Amino acid sequence: MKQRITFIQPEGTGIDPNGIHVNPDTVVFSNARSAALEKRLTLDLEDLPAEVGIYHIIVPSEKQS
């Protein structure tokens, strides 16, 4: 499983590298209030329960109409 968080700043907004603090479990960004936040989570089939993963493995030509 992978997680990505993106801060999107308004055009023309400067970013001060000193305002970004990275810790083992968190990222603190001093301009976060003016930024839009995008979160993306990516899972492998192995991360899903068997009941969910099986639907992604079926080849389209094998599906019943």
3D architecture notes:
By secondary structure, the protein is an alpha+beta fold. The chain has one helix spanning 50-57, and strands at residues 2-8, 20-22, 27-29, 36-42. A two-stranded antiparallel ribbon has the order 1-4. Strand 2 and strand 3 (27-29) form a beta hairpin. The chain is elongated.
How do the strands and helices of this protein lay out in sequence?
Layout: E1 2-8, E2 20-22, E3 27-29, E4 36-42, H1 50-57
Antiparallel strand pairs: 1-4, 2-3
Quickly list its features.
65 residues; two-stranded antiparallel ribbon; 4 strands; elongated
Globally, the shape reads elongated
Summarize the main sheet.
2 strands, antiparallel
Quantity of strands, as a count: 4
How many domains make up the coordinates? 1
Kindly provide the radius of gyration, computed on alpha-carbon positions and rounded to a whole number of angstroms: 19 Å
Helix content: 10-25%
Classify the beta-strand content into a percent band. Answer: 25-35%
Mean pLDDT: 77
Distance from first to last alpha carbon: 33 Å
Structural class: alpha+beta
Question: How would you summarize what this structure contains?
Answer:
This protein is of the alpha+beta class and 65 residues long.
